[in-house]
Structure formats: C-alpha cells, structure tokens
Amino acid sequence: MSTTTDTTNTTGETAETNTNNRVDRGVVMNKWLKNTAMLTIRLIVIAVFLFALGKMIGTFWAGILPVILALIICTVLAPIATWLRRHKVPAGLAAILTMLGFIGLLGAIFSLIAPDIVNHSRVLYLQAFEGVQRLQLWLQGPPLNIDPEKINEAANDIAHWVQNQAGAIAGGVFSGISSAAGLAVTLMVIIVLTFFFLKDGHRFLPWLRSATGGRSGLHATELLTRAWITLSGFIRAQAIVSLIDATFIGLGIALLQVPMAFTLSVITFIAGFIPIVGAVVAGTLAVLVALVSLGFTKALIVLAIVIVVQQLEGNILSPMLQSRAMDLHPVIVLISVTVGGGLFGLVGAFLAVPVAAMIAVAYRYVLDMLRIHSGERTADELDFYTSEGAVIAKIAEEESAHERQEWHQERDWSAAPIIDEVPQPAERVSKTPGVNTGVSKGLNPSLKKLREQSAKLRRLGVKRNR
C-alpha cells in the first residue's frame, strides 16, 4: 500500500512539474525569431562597415600601399637597426646604415643579373625563333600535314595572347602605383617611410599608450605586438623557403648548363614571396628557358627538378615554417592568394597572406579575451607577448568574475556541458544488456551532467511555486 502511495505521489509530482514548467510554443518561437532578427541586424551592420572600410581603403590605396610595403621592408631591417641601437649607435645613424646596406645589396644583385640578361637575351631569342620554325616544319610534314596558313594564324593568336597577358601582369604589378605621382615618387615615399619607421618605430607603442590611455592602450600594445611578430615571422619563413627553392633549383639548372641559371635563381627567390603562385610561375620560366636553349629532354629534366623541389618545400618545409609563423591552414593560404590576386593583381596576391595572418591574430586575441570573460581560462593559463597584455588580462579576469555573478543572479542559468576544444572520439555504447561501456545508460558524461542539473533546477522551481 505504501509503495502504491509513493508511486502516486511521484507521478503527481512529475505531472505537476511538467505543467508548471511549460510555456506556449509561440513564446519560444517569438524568442527565437527575436534572437535571429537581432543577429541579422548585427551582421548587416558589420557587412556595411566592412564594405565602407573597403571603399575607403580603395580610395586611399595609393597612399596606403607605400605604408604597407615600408612596414614589410622594416620587418626585415628592424632587427639590424635594433642591434645597432643596442651598441650605442644613434637611432638616425642606425637607420641610415641599415638602409644603405640594404640598398647596396639590392644594387649588387641587380648588377649581377643585368649583364646576364643582356648577354643571353638575344641568343635565347634566336634559339626560340629557330625552335618555332622547326616546330612549323614538323607540323607541315607527315603524318599531320597541317596547312601552313592555319599554323601562322595559330602562332599569331598565341603571340597576341602573350602580349595581352604581359600587359595584364604589368598592370597588376603597377596597380595602385600609377595613380600616385609616379613610380619614382612612390619608391621615394617608401624609402622615406622606411627610414622613419626604423628610426622611431620603437617609440610608437609607448606613444600609443600615452595617447589612448587606459585599457585601449594596453589592448593595442598586446595586439599590435602579436601582429608585428606574426608579420616578421611570415617574412622570415617565406624568405627561408624562397632561398631554399632558389638554391636547389639554381644548382640543378646550373649542372644542366641552362643559360641564365643565376638570374633564374634570383627570379625564383623573388617569386617565392607570392605563396603557391610565385613558385609555379618561376618554375615554368626555368622550364621554358631550358626548352628553348637545350631541347625537350633537358627541359623534362628541369621540370622534374622543379617539381621535386617544390613538393619537398610545399609538403614539408613550408607547412612547418608557416605553421610556426602564422598558424594558417594551407587552404586559407590558397584562398587568400586567389582572392587577393583576383581583386588587386600581383600586389594583392603578395599581400593576401599577411592580411589573412593579421585577421587571424585579431581573431585569436579576441578569442583569448572571450575565454577569460567566460571563465573558461584564467590569465595565467594563456600566453601573452607583453607585460601590458598580461596586466589587461588580469584586470579582465577580475572584472569578469563580478559580471558572471550578476548574470547568474538575473536568472537560473543551466550550466552548459563541458566540451573540450579538440573533441575526443566518444566511447561506443554497447547495445548488449549487461555490458559496461564506461558511460552510464549510454549517455555522454557531459550530457548526463547537464540532465542532472536541469532536473535539479526543475525541482527547485516546483518548491518555489509551492
């Protein structure tokens, strides 16, 4: 009798709990629609802001491009200028000496390349012309017996296509520069900006903290330091990858006695700064020179050398270095280069990966702050590059504790299941009775804990209503 009474009470309590804990479906749907509408409005505002920002950058691109290029150059030269300042060299003199050394190195490389190009260009032209004539004679003879007029038409079409592509490439190289006073003026602006960045760049962050003050200065110091370290790491990693490509490809084509081997190596090094696309273009150029000058067999050998070196670089060296420098997936790199090249030509392809890396840096910093505010991580559990970043993280940790208490007091929040950031394979649930799988009743531990907490909250709600 007692058992029957307990069962009845339990059933009644369950029914009462279900009745008191129900709301109309319209209320739930209205809440969902409200949240969706608010999210849509926010996304529209963000999209409008990004569109306006893109338009503004496009309008002032002629002035922004020299600044970006000067910053990229400074990532290479800044360690040298810093080393000179540490050895008691005045900042201005250190910047001048660093730039003179850099310009001297570029001049030396150009002085080695220019005679090589001049000496071999006419020979390559004659060899290419002779090769085209041999190809025409072969096509006219058996077994193809193609009409010479059709061959001439096809050759003219190919020549027009090459000219158009050359014009497009030239336009891509000088896009954004031609709208300024001219290439010479733009180069002069880059040189002047580089000098001042090297001379006074170490004073920028202290000035920024004093100008903005408070939290903004601390956040900006940490975020800009991360961005600078990432950008410097990208340039260094890309330089190492390009140097290895140029060295091995240059040695291979030099052993085969391909004309302009050193020049092709330098072109390979420079083109390597455009990820994925640059290596393909430089390798194609080396194969074409070998085809024109040495014939089909040597060209195949050069193609094999280029493919082997680029496969080793793309599958082993580049992912290892780039993952340390930027932590970007190769798919993101490829998409960035494709979109940047399609929108802004070769300049866009060159700047696409650094821009993607900067966006990733900002995203990761926001994610770190979000973890601290949500209580998932403490400031000591995260890595910061500056003391200012550690300070603002401690402040955010203390303030977020009070914020979370206020949020919990507003309503009875049900705790979310604890999910690892890198999901682990779930245990298999046995369907055989009596077999212990390590998970009670076949439930994930987090889901089981969530259900227990939800049941506890429902019981508390029933008691309050009584």
Structural class: mainly alpha
**Net shape:** globular
Helicity range: over 70%
Mean pLDDT: 75
Strand content: under 5%
Compute the separation of the termini in Å. 26 Å
- What is the CA-atom radius of gyration, in angstroms? 33 Å
For the sheet with most strands, the description reads:
none
Spans where pLDDT lies below 50 across 5 or more residues = 422-444
Q: What's the SSE pattern?
A: HHHHHHHHHHHHHH
Report the total helices.
Answer: 14
Beta strands, count? 0
Overview of this protein structure:
This protein is mainly α. It has a domain at 44-201 and 219-325. Helix content is 80%, strand content 0%. The chain is built from 14 helices and no strands. It has helices at residues 2-20, 25-59, 61-86, 91-140, 148-173, 183-200, 204-212, 214-255, 261-271, 277-294, 296-325, 330-374, 387-410, 445-465.
Helix-strand layout with pairing:
Layout: H1 2-20, H2 25-59, H3 61-86, H4 91-140, H5 148-173, H6 183-200, H7 204-212, H8 214-255, H9 261-271, H10 277-294, H11 296-325, H12 330-374, H13 387-410, H14 445-465
Keywords:
466 residues; 80% helix; mainly alpha; single chain
In short:
With 466 residues, the chain is mainly α. It has 14 helices and no strands. 80% of the residues lie in helices and 0% in strands.
